[in-house]
Amino acid sequence: MPPPASSIAVRAEALVKTFGSTRALDGVDLEIPAGTVLGLLGPNGAGKTTTVRILTTLLRPDSGRAFVAGHDVVADPDAVRRSIGLSGQYAAVDEHLTGYENLYMVGRLYGKNRTDAAARARELLARFRLQDSADRPAKTYSGGMRRRLDLAGALVAEPAVVVLDEPTTGLDPRGRLDTWEVIGELVADGATVLLTTQYLEEADQLADKIFVIDHGKVIADGTADQLKAQVGGERLEIVVGEPGELAAVAQVLSEVGSDEPVTEDHQRRVHVKVDTGPKALVEALRRLDQQSVTVLDVALHRPTLDDVFLSLTGHSAEDEPTAEPEGKSKGRKAKSR
To answer: 169 and 246, same structural domain?
Structure first.
């Protein structure tokens, strides 16, 4: 029997998926409470897109179970498709139709009558700042405009669960902020959002809870603050005026820090993890002043999600390991008609 749909909008249990000799998912468990945003983080090839494709009925798991809006993704895929909106990593729009026609068509495919489909299309075109281009063929749109149109298409049916696979890829800063605002509005209206992203500040800004996935397994989960607390401490950074002063800074930071300092010669910067925060900063500056070291800049940083990512996976989120075997998610919406 499926789990109750009232409190948990999405649940995956021990999902396994292999492609040849590659085990893309190796027992993934996750759940998303209704009306929240779950951020799924991981490097390329970690299993994020495979998870998304299973939850949206585009792939069948080899083993394990998954429920979306109370429906089994294998036993009742049509009901799942009626409950979700999906925006993949790349905009999937009909380039020969206008922006308005793209959204109107999706509305009709989801069963809206002509009046409601037209009204919803115009509403979303305005929300995504596309109303001035509504009657132009999508093939004349810029990449960012096509991306926004694709996102709008995922929302036409006002789905209970919205799956956004790297939704701001290719968007300019304004487009990203607009998308963040839309996601906030969706949740305020009661929708549940599964967000995969490699923009760590995006997960930090939007996600109520974050799952970090690597090599097909969930290796950590929690709120952004909980994950940062796992890294522990703060990072003290000092930038000096002369390269020859770096050795002295490194020595001082090795004495006040809780780890080995890291020297970045090209930026004339040394940083180290510290447990005593401001106390370590004051002590480091006192010792450097005694040695007449010219300090140009000093900063004390809390751990970031990038620090978490590096600590958990062994590399930063900027790195891009081999992509997942099945390729990238390109579909816009899962349709039942």
So the answer is: no
Residues 45, 191, single domain; the answer is yes
Amino acid identity for residue 245 in this structure: E
What whole-number distance in Å separates Cα of residue 135 and Cα of residue 99?
6
Spatial CA neighbour of 296 closest among 237, 236, 248, 239 = 239
Residue 269 and residue 151 share a domain: no
Q: What is the pLDDT of residues 150-202, one digit of tens each?
A: 989 999 999 999 999 888 877 788 888 888 888 888 888 888 999 998 788 88
CA–CA separation, 83 and 105 (whole Å): 18
pTM across the whole model: 0.75
Quick one: 39 and 184 in the same domain?
A: yes
Report the alpha-carbon distance of residue 60 to residue 73 in Å, rounded.
8
Alpha carbon distance 285, 295 (integer Å): 8
Q: Which domain holds residue 218?
A: 8-228
Place of tokens 């040849």: 20
59 close to 229: Cβ distance less than 8 angstroms: no
